[in-house]
Design a protein that fits this description.
The chain is an all-alpha fold. It is about 50% helix and about 0% strand.
């Protein structure tokens, strides 16, 4: 992956806040930046089966997205 200057800023923000939002135009590398900068589970809620599972059974879905403390 190409090193991104924004990765440092995103990590710094994540240390201060419980979530970080990356916005920008389509195909600009937001997902690539997030997946490369953060060592966290990734879930694509645009995938119909994932979205259906998340909305249909949130109690079962959420534990899959958590990391150990």
């Amino acid at each position: 992956m190409i090193p991104r200057i924004l990765a440092e800023a995103a990590l710094a923000a994540f240390k201060q806040y419980p979530f970080v939002t990356l916005t920008g135009p389509r195909q600009s590398g937001k997902t690539t930046l997030a997946r490369g900068a953060f060592d966290l589970p990734y879930v694509n809620l645009e995938a119909p089966d994932e979205r259906e599972f998340a909305t249909g059974d949130p109690a079962a879905f959420l534990p899959r997205t958590r990391t150990a403390p």
